[in-house]
Design goal:
Layout: H1 22-32, H2 38-56, H3 68-79
Helix pairs in contact: 1-2, 2-3
Protein name: Phosphoribosyltransferase domain-containing protein
Pfam family, one: UPRTase
InterPro entries: PRTase-like (IPR029057), PRTase_dom (IPR000836)
Length: about 90
Amino acid sequence: MENCNNGPAAADDFKVVVPAHPLISHWVSVLRDRSTPSHAFRSAMGELGRLLIYEATRDWLIVPILRAGLALADLATSILPSTRTFHLGEKK
């Protein structure tokens, strides 16, 4: 992986931000609860995704990462319909 300076990306180049928002905390706790039924899990994923996409689009570019990120990509296009989604793959 490379950063915008065309050099190798270091772990220090990436920043994880967890927005301090009570609804985000609530939906994360629903997702972490093993007793959450699958229909409630999907609903919670959608609600959390909408909130995270809203927070992320303030300042950052959205890049879905395979598996969980793909579920959020559909939500992103529902909130931001003019966005384009690209899929990158790497062969081992």
